[in-house]
Design goal:
By secondary structure, this protein is an alpha+beta fold. The protein has 3 helices and 6 strands. The longest helix is centred in the middle third of the chain and has 13 residues. The chain is globular.
Amino acid sequence: MSDEADGDEAATDGGDEVLRASDIGGEGPPIEEKPYKIVFEANKCFGAGKCAEVADNWVMDVVSGMAKPEAYYIGEEDLEENVRAAEACPAKKDAGVIHVVDRRTDEEIAPDPHGDGTLSVDW
């Protein structure tokens, strides 16, 4: 078995390299248009609904009982509400499963539990 990072360390891809936000998902729209990206750990969402309470971009799926974003790539006008959603998420012992990333710098803006901008996914 390979060594995996525990919840207190930056996420890895199963090897020794740190997983970057740009490693996840497609390229998306031009960065100039949508400079922020949502990385959502849907497999760890338990449907508390806090994100949907504070952000219009987040809705609760009636069938699955889980949250989901309407858009994964966002502009400045949607940044604040998605940061609120990431910070409100109680999953992973309040570290959240919604991550807002600046595509220009590849740094996690929220929730940033490590305090250093590294992506805090737990895969």
